Amino acid sequence: MQKDILKSTLVIITILMFSCQNNENKESSNNLEDYAKFVDPMIGTAKMGHTYPGATVPFGSVQLSPDTDTIPYAVNGRYNPDVYKYCAGYQYEDSTIVGFSHTHFSGTGHSDLGDFLIMPTTGDLKLNPGTQANPDSGYRSRFSHKNEQASPGYYSVLLDDYNIKAEMTATTRVGMHQYTFNKNEKTHIILDLMSGIYNYDDKNVWTFVRVENDTLVTGYRQTNGWARTRRVYFAMSFNKPIINYGRARYDKQPYNGFWGRFNQSENFPEIAGEKIRMYFDFDLKKEEKLQIKFALSPVSSKGALANMKKETPNWNFEEVHKNAKLAWNKELNKIQIKSDDTEEKTNFYTAMYHAFLGPTEYMDTDNNYTGLDMNTHQAENFTNYTSFSLWDTYRALHPLFNILQPERNSDMIASMIAHQEQSVHAMLPIWSHYANENWCMIGYHSVSVIADAIVKGNTNFNTDKALDACVQTARTRYFDGIRYYMDMGYVPEDKNGASVSKTLEYAYDDWAIAQAAKKLGKEAIYNEFIERSKNYKNVFDAKSGFMRPKLSDGSFKENFDPLNTHGQGFIEGNSWNYSLYVPHDPTGMIKLMGGNERFTTYLDSLFTMELPDKYFEHTEDISREGIIGNYVHGNEPSHHVAYLYNWTNTPWKSQDKIRMILDEKYKTGADGLSGNDDFGQMSAWYIFSSLGFYPVAPGSVDYALGSPSISNAVINLDNGNTFQITAKNQSAKNVYVEKVELNGKVLKRPFITHDVLMSGGNLIFYMSEKPNLKLYK
Amino acid sequence: MQKDILKSTLVIITILMFSCQNNENKESSNNLEDYAKFVDPMIGTAKMGHTYPGATVPFGSVQLSPDTDTIPYAVNGRYNPDVYKYCAGYQYEDSTIVGFSHTHFSGTGHSDLGDFLIMPTTGDLKLNPGTQANPDSGYRSRFSHKNEQASPGYYSVLLDDYNIKAEMTATTRVGMHQYTFNKNEKTHIILDLMSGIYNYDDKNVWTFVRVENDTLVTGYRQTNGWARTRRVYFAMSFNKPIINYGRARYDKQPYNGFWGRFNQSENFPEIAGEKIRMYFDFDLKKEEKLQIKFALSPVSSKGALANMKKETPNWNFEEVHKNAKLAWNKELNKIQIKSDDTEEKTNFYTAMYHAFLGPTEYMDTDNNYTGLDMNTHQAENFTNYTSFSLWDTYRALHPLFNILQPERNSDMIASMIAHQEQSVHAMLPIWSHYANENWCMIGYHSVSVIADAIVKGNTNFNTDKALDACVQTARTRYFDGIRYYMDMGYVPEDKNGASVSKTLEYAYDDWAIAQAAKKLGKEAIYNEFIERSKNYKNVFDAKSGFMRPKLSDGSFKENFDPLNTHGQGFIEGNSWNYSLYVPHDPTGMIKLMGGNERFTTYLDSLFTMELPDKYFEHTEDISREGIIGNYVHGNEPSHHVAYLYNWTNTPWKSQDKIRMILDEKYKTGADGLSGNDDFGQMSAWYIFSSLGFYPVAPGSVDYALGSPSISNAVINLDNGNTFQITAKNQSAKNVYVEKVELNGKVLKRPFITHDVLMSGGNLIFYMSEKPNLKLYK
Fold first, then answer.
1. Which GO terms describe its molecular function (chains A, B) (predicted)?
2. Closest Cα in chain A, distance from residue B200 (Å)
3. How much is the pLDDT for A3?
């Protein structure tokens, strides 16, 4: 009893403290909590998180961020494995910064972008970036993390070699730089138009630049990389006049013709070629600030200039920064958690931040954008998005958007439908960015995103078109083994590699299409695809107890090793993990795998067995940091796995696994992420799981319950409702759920549904140190 | 007397015959004479005429024409002089055709284009063009001229190797092909996206193609050639379904990534890369006709498709051909000549045809076009044109347009003003094509074209903007020695080569600006530029009697050879010819050169002296065929020279020279032209001179009179007036003018003015075997 009083007192004190803190945190004008201050953009910048620390706004087109190296994709024609570290341009361990470029993917496992690298320098002009080993050989500069600051919408660093303070902020389409020069030396801005991320020798296809006047430069760059035909247009404006400028070319110039009449190297305003670096000189006094507005457009330099004028009409760095921070706080306030654990808040709000970095807006302020057909299109009644890392993000990120970003998610689907209409394959995106399909990874998971939205009623898009697009995509016979899958019920390994992964993922995707069809009353489509969704059974080998590659003659592959990630019919995973990939029918899968008990043992083994390095050491997306036993959290295929105990009679085993993963795989610090953040998917897993639920099968309205790590959270829904989650008796030890109450009623199954959540309400977990073996019964 | 009766009878018979012929010639529906049948597009296709024989409409964007070879611009990094023969893709002496491409310059002395080469083949697929020496090594075919037909808007040839009859016609933006296959073999259409004119190794920057469905292909090609950043978009439609297709790539593919998942070589609808050839297979019966519509756009493939739908809604080759022919006859009827000399009619109407081949329309049917800034612009209230070969065409072609094509000429100027507004240099075009300035040749002769139109009152464009653009251009200090010219009154040879040619041409251009300023009442501009126009005097060396290169210290160049074309301060001409380049002030020039008598002797010598080959043998634009004595007619700088006697007291010496040039330098037959036709300038000289007058100084309203070779011509002016020219007592011997009557009054000076011409009227030359020494006195 006394104990209870003590506890109550503590609660009151905590609430009072929290209120105080709130007042302190409020963004005065908007009544928002300042959660931005808990966001640490450095998380994930070390090792393989592949996040970037630079300045951007939520879903912004511009990601203005430092690149610490720009090593080539290949050396002497051979892939350079070190390039993988630089998917986002920045590696925490590095000691030099090459410059600040305007486009970055967050957390991807392959890459592109890094457009328009800007570097301020002083003294003798160097146009070569130099090397980390010998920074003085080029324009790059040493820096140290102690002089670095990163927060939502803002990044700054001191460039030691030049004693220049570099600051950056952004709007959706404009990156704003501010450089404070602390020397009385000649000052240069380098614009390196050859620099890029995943930079092949011949990646630069064409560069076109015009120095329009002494403060304005426009142009575009076309690259042939992950995206084959990618053009990014820009307009760059300075707040001080250029006093001198020039360019160097590093390409062959097959024809120079009548251009020989000019000295094109200096102060010649028309610049074009494959490989170009430029410099702009300024006459600045010590401590004077040089500002640059750098606007992007997918359409034209005219579009970029219009974007600049609309989004940054003034030379007010602080205002742009303030607005960027405000934009972030608006998004971050969609979930308000209460915690006196700063690390928890940091992890949570950084996850929220990472989850809202993409897909990114991809259109001008006049709604024009470039489509897959390279024609200019106008987005009618939607915002066009790009950079769909769908093999990752269909799992939890888009389901999270259906809760927190319903309007954007609908627009993303409208963008996918537009993509499908423009696609010469008439296919929905697989992995698309910047008006290009890069075909990365497997499946056709757009259909999952679409089905999830349809089933959940978040459909501010043409649902008939959407379903047609799904069906059309799933019937594209020439795509990645689909002809075999359609004809034989599985992808035969001798016809098409990674055949089991493909069969399993197609089967899930087909189930998703069936769910959408059912919701829309399209019976024939439902029947076709619900039938296809059972195809997962065709690759199950009862003898070995694993999903196993099957050949076109119907026999299973010999010499099968379910532990090995390589050459076993799977992609970025082994059979041990991938055999569990039947998110749409765990019950059927459990039956197939020998029933409840055998299945539970299988899961237990997965989390506890030893997986030697050799089984995954050349799989870039899997690293030791992301592994627990043989369970791979650092990559996506198993993200639903910890929740599968819910389908057995041991849901408490999900609870401790989830808490273990939350605890071990998400940490603060630059090396806090255990694998690629994958454009927010890893973060979305964290957000869902830390709140106590997870969308095991997008396309279903059910969320599986786990074990929340957060004690108190309020989800502020766009529809005005709030959904409150409380974990009573929460502690690091109390990872088991004793009881769950939804709106005051005890839950008898380990699920809540989407409509319950969106209606607002109260979910209370009662936590305990010990598992409740009778929970949900 | 009897003789006279005989003559009268002959005249009557001739008139009767002519009337008969007229009826036969009439295009039934339009009351037009069928002058198209006199046009021989083969004229100029041999040697250095650089014309093309293919199908096009007047000023059409598409020039669909056979390319007989596509040899590289450079071999082992060194310029291949043979490439010069192929400026228009076709050489009459060749025995093979590589294929039919869609864009060609007419008569230029440097080149580009040759986009989208199509070749029909049968049998085994060959994707390599092969060589002339060994045609069987590739897809090219042998042909012979006896199976070839070329007429305005139509070209056909039998491709011997495949027994395919190839026919082509065109609208403004669409080339239409018709292939009749005479074998029962597998049939292919090759689309060679690497082929081009003046093809450097790395000219192809990017190619993007989509096979949209089984009859439609779209895409674009970007090249880096004479135009540095040139993209041409296309849409290609077949009248039969493609049954199979594929592509081969000849470029390095730095990154193939996830594309490895597909067989991209066959039936894969998305094609992109630097160097690509494609094939399309069809299932055709013997004698079946395969038709292709190939539409171009400067903006987008969407634009190309819209152009196709608008201009060729049906699959009716004959109708397109009929319309093309009609369009030509409408233009050709602007001057109706009467002659029973078929050769004369052939020369005259072929000259008219060549004069109306360019500049070419450069915008979509929705008036959108790509500007110099690579942005999409809309032509508001004008038709946008491109391909301005101004160093050539300012002389006589644009003046001819002010008479025959006033609306188009005004629109061409509107296009030049738009160019100037888009130019990062804020300069009017020098030699511009396809949204690029190629800077070919010297001067800033746009100002001449503009001034000529302003002075002649043909100003359906903003004259204030136009004059500002002229002034801005002429003051561009960093352009080609202008800073010296402005500061020192001449271009010093030690600072900038071809300095005399530049000084002389700038001086003329400046005079033209002054004339425009005067007409518009801008006194300050007039004063500035009339002063500059006297600069020609600064490079006259009284000692040698020649225009001579001056150095920056004010001394004349030593070791001066006025005969040599090379390294003497001139471009494409020697001092003997170029010293006469003061078209705006012949009187001042004559005075400078020692007065009437010495000047007349100078001119006489020019036409009679011997010029050894060594003085011009490496000057591509000058060949023996174009020379009379030391007078070079085959290139432009002397085009006004034969008329200069008009400023002496021996105008009759102009008359016989002009008739000699008309007779010797313009012939029928493929080798009929004595030099590059230069986008119609050579032809315009012929048209003017054969009618008896010539615009010595565009920007003046005066036309100098010569000696007409045509006996009877009617100019049908757009304003409804007609101007009739009659040469009485005309014959090959009667080259001298006895008397000239304008509207019944004897002319006392060897000039008529533009307004007189445009008012309609009657100009009668009385011809004689002997010079009238008292003419015009």
1. carbohydrate binding; hydrolase activity, acting on glycosyl bonds; peptide-N4-(N-acetyl-beta-glucosaminyl)asparagine amidase activity
2. 6
3. 47
Token pair in block for residue B43: 């004229």
| B438–A373 C-beta distance less than 8 A | no
Residue A476 at interface with chain B, using a CB cutoff of 8 Å: no
Q: Give the per-residue pLDDT at A717.
A: 98
What pTM did the predictor assign? 0.95
Q: CA A452 to CA A701: how far, in whole Å?
A: 8
Nearest C-alpha in B relative to A257: B226
Cα-based angle B441, B442, B446 (whole degrees, multiple of 5): 100
Give the CA-trace dihedral at B600, B606, B610, B611, to 10 degrees: 160
pLDDT the model gives residue B255: 66
Phi, psi for residue B466 in degrees, rounded to 5: -65, -45
> pLDDT by residue (tens digit) across B653-694?
999 999 999 999 999 999 999 899 999 999 999 999 999 999
Q: Which residues pair with A271 in a beta bridge?
A: A209
Global ipTM: 0.94
In 3D space, the residue among A110, A271, A300 whose CA is nearest the CA of residue A194 turns out to be A271
pLDDT attached to residue A253: 72
- Strand, coil or helix: what is B741? strand
State the distance between the two ends of chain A, measured CA to CA, in whole angstroms. 30
Walk me through the domains of chain B, giving residue ranges and CATH numbers. Answer: 35-330 (2.70.98.10), 364-542+550-556 (1.20.1050.60)
Q: Say if residues A158 and A142 touch (Cβ distance below 8 Å).
A: no
CB B398 within 8 A of CB B411: no
Average confidence (pLDDT) over A454-463: 98
Q: Which member of B225, B257, B373 has the closest CB to residue A438?
A: B257
pLDDT of amino acid A626: 85
Please say whether the beta carbons of A422 and A437 come within 8 A: no
CB B51, CB B677: distance < 8 Å: yes
CA A207 vs CA A221, A689, B67, B358: distances in Å? 4, 46, 31, 30
Cα separation, A465 vs A455, in Å, equals 15
- Cα–Cα distances (Å) from A398 to A694, B128, B736, in that order, read 12, 49, 89
Q: What is the pLDDT of residues B629-662, one digit of tens each?
A: 999 998 899 999 999 999 999 999 999 999 999 9
Of A198, A255, A375, the CB nearest to B225: A255
Q: How high is the mean pLDDT of chain A?
A: 94
Task: Name the amino acid, one letter, at A509.
Answer: D
Say if residues B61 and B78 touch (Cβ distance below 8 Å): no
Q: How confident is the model at residue B3 (pLDDT cuts 50, 70, 90)?
A: very low
- For residue range B11-31, what is the model confidence (pLDDT) as tens digits? 444 444 444 344 444 544 468
User: What is the three-state SS of A302-321?
Assistant: HHHHHHHHHHCCCCCHHHHH
Residue B78 forms contact with A (CB below 8 Å): no
Residues 100-129 of A with CB under 8 A from B: 110
Cα dihedral: B685, B686, B688, B689 (round 10)? 100
| More confident call, B271 vs B16 | B271
Inter-chain CB proximity B206 and A229 less than 8 Å: yes
Nearest CA to A129 out of A46, A50, A193 is that of A193
Tokens of residue A372, six digits: 């897959």
